[in-house]
Amino acid sequence: MTAKKDIKDLALNELAAELESLGEPAFRAKQIFAWLYRRGKATFGEFSDISRGLRDKLEERYFIGRLEAVERLRSGDGVQKFLFRLGDGNRVETVLIPSGTRRTVCLSTQAGCRYRCAFCASGLGGFQRNLTPSEITGQVLFVKDVLGEEPTNLVFMGMGEPLDNFDNVAGAVRIMNAAEGMGIAARRFTISTCGIVPGIEQLAKLDLQVNLSLSLHAVTDRQRDRLMPVNRKYPLEEIVRACEAYLESGGRMMTLEYTLIRDVNDTRNDAEGLAAIARRLRAKVNLIAYSPVPGLEFAPPEDAAVKEFVRWLEERRVQVTERRSKGADIAAACGQLAGHKKGETRETRETGGKRETGKAEKRGRPGRKAESVGTRTAKEPRGSGRRDDPPPAERT
Ligand code: SF4
């Protein structure tokens, strides 16, 4: 007997084709999508407008994938981090960032990461595997359960490089974007990349209309080769050209992520190089002060250095948003998501939220769009992850 497959790995058109092959009308796919993604049902038996015969056929061939949260950490002002155990024991993390009326979910796309950026915890344990569409949408469905309402923004900036798992990420976006799925508008998605040129080119060819964010962090090949080894394969000029082509193809506005690290990438020359790239791509810059990762040698910049860097960018007419990376008390800040190794067991727990919380908070500055991270009390999860319009980006 063939092993059952996860029905949530199927796009709407794939499900329709499956149903036709079972002698069922294709329109049933929309009804099934509604049960899976709008009503969040966990068993085929609950699909009350589907015939018993079809439910039995589905039951024979499929299971309904769900993620199990093994740990939930909550900061005092509402940011929450969830650790999910996948079916094979791998673990990934998702972060939920409430901010006013926004509920942004920072999604993981891979267990581990093969790119090993020098400042990031996600690459420390190496690459395990790609997440499936079901495991990606499952993070959002879990948060829907926690919040009791739709997340407003989805950012692919958690563990892993989204464009290294292109098909599954694109599939998950289509499911969540579909009116019959979660109905989340394309402009609410931001896909972040460390600079995977073929992936950017592929994205340009799809009509997804999502936001693209480039995790830059260094502005010369020499410096970027050291911080982000992927740059040895896809050098800066190639990446910027791919981004230009993405914009020319009708892609939405771009953002550049720049993690400021003390004595590494915080000079006036760095700011000038960043400004030149930002102007070329007509991109906004999200400036993030580095958050320490245990075992890594980097240090956060002084507040004064951050302010100076912002001033240098603004003098060069670059739109910059300073993000104060928070959530250190739950290791939910930029670059800190590491998951836990296979086989580990931890009890679900909550922190007291005594320290500064939140994933990243914009600091209001004259002449700059300001946003504050609001406080929200999330409901407890039943069973067991940044922003808006256009959503900023924080991490690949
Ligand atoms: S910054 Fe992104 S691409 Fe680099 S190691 Fe971390 S998760 Fe991977």
Protein topology:
Layout (H helix, E strand, L loop, with lengths): L4 E2 L5 H10 L6 H11 L13 H10 E2 L4 E7 L5 E6 L5 E9 L2 E5 L3 E3 L14 E4 L2 H15 L5 E4 L9 H12 L11 E5 L3 H9 L5 E5 L5 H7 L2 H4 L2 H13 L5 E7 L7 H14 L2 E6 L13 H13 L4 E6 L34 E3 L34
Bound molecules: iron/sulfur cluster (SF4).
Structure report:
- The protein is an alpha/beta fold and 396 residues long.
- It is 30% helix and 19% strand.
- It is built from 11 helices and 15 strands.
- The protein has helices spanning 12-21, 28-38, 52-61, 133-147, 166-177, 197-205, 221-227, 230-233, 236-248, 268-281, 303-315, and strands at 5-6, 62-63, 68-74, 80-85, 91-99, 102-106, 110-112, 127-130, 153-156, 189-193, 211-215, 254-260, 284-289, 320-325, 360-362.
- The chain has an 11-stranded mixed β-sheet with strand order 3-4-5-6-9-10-11-12-13-14-15, with helices on one face.
- α1 packs across α2, α6 (197-205) runs parallel beside α9 (236-248) and α10 (268-281) packs across α11 (303-315).
- The longest helix is centred in the middle third of the chain and has 15 residues, at 133-147.
- The radius of gyration is 21 Å and the shape is elongated.
- The protein starts with a strand and ends in a 34-residue tail after the last strand.
- The model is unreliable at 341-396 (pLDDT under 50).
- Residues 113, 115-117, 120, 122-123, 159-161, 194, 215, 395-396 line the site of iron/sulfur cluster.
